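Weekly modeling sync, notes
Attendees: S.R. (lead), two postdocs, one rotation student

Agenda item 3: backlog of single-chain predictions. S.R. asked that every request posted to the team notebook include the full sequence so nobody has to chase files. The rotation student volunteered to paste the first one in as an example of the format we agreed on. Action items at the bottom.

Example entry:
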Amino acid sequence: MPPPFLRASTPGPPPPAPVVIAVCSGKGGVGKSTVALNLAVALGLDGLRVGLLDADLHAPDIPLMVGLRRSAPSRGWTLSRAGAKAAVEPVERYGITVMSSGFIVAEDQAVTLTAGLAGALLAQLIFATEWGELDYLVIDLPPGTSDVVQETFRLLPAARAVIVVTPQDVAHLDNRRVLAALSMAGATPLGGIENMAALTCPCCSSRLEVFPPVAPERSVWAAGLVRLGSVPMGVVGDGGGTEPVVATAPESPRGVALREAATAVRAAV
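Predicted structure, as returned to the notebook:
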């Protein structure tokens, strides 16, 4: 049997938007959800109709980042729906439409789904959510090349990938593996965004390097990935919080860099 990335895709429902951007990374802790949220909000600020799907089903962070939390544990969820009960209601925040498994379970409730059930929930969140008319759907994927990542590109074969990387050797190594997996899937990588590129001093605005440099030949850029943006670190009160800084601190170094990255993503599309 061929690997899941190589299995032929059967025709499915049309995607919720003509352009689907899957934000992914081979390594956790690189700020992937932050980049996905800010890309979605920045595109919305440009007048586009944007949906954001938090597809990190087991560890959803987007609800917290948009100021929402569910405290009541879920007792169950119907994965197979029909008729009027088929629709799933999203949430409107910062001018975009947001859906997450974090709206289904409490924020400290464990999500223990098998691969098959996770795929069914993912398909429901993609196709049964009442997105309305969208221009873009941005998907925040879990790190690595897990079943959920593979299923996303199977369900949405035209999705374009944006890879988030930090200036660390291990982050570049893990993302080179993601590039190989995307190639196996026939998926299109639009490019990469370097997050936490450096720290901009809030006092003198000088650039402070935090990580040792990655050998150029070991980087994802050497593998042919186009650089779509470079986003510095921020400090609390100057674009360093969890909220979308493109809306809350647009003139901060992070806010400016993320808006420029969103513009580059549109141009690449």
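Discussion: group reviewed the output briefly. The two ends are 34 Å apart (CA to CA).
Action items: rotation student to repeat for the remaining queue; S.R. to check formatting next week.
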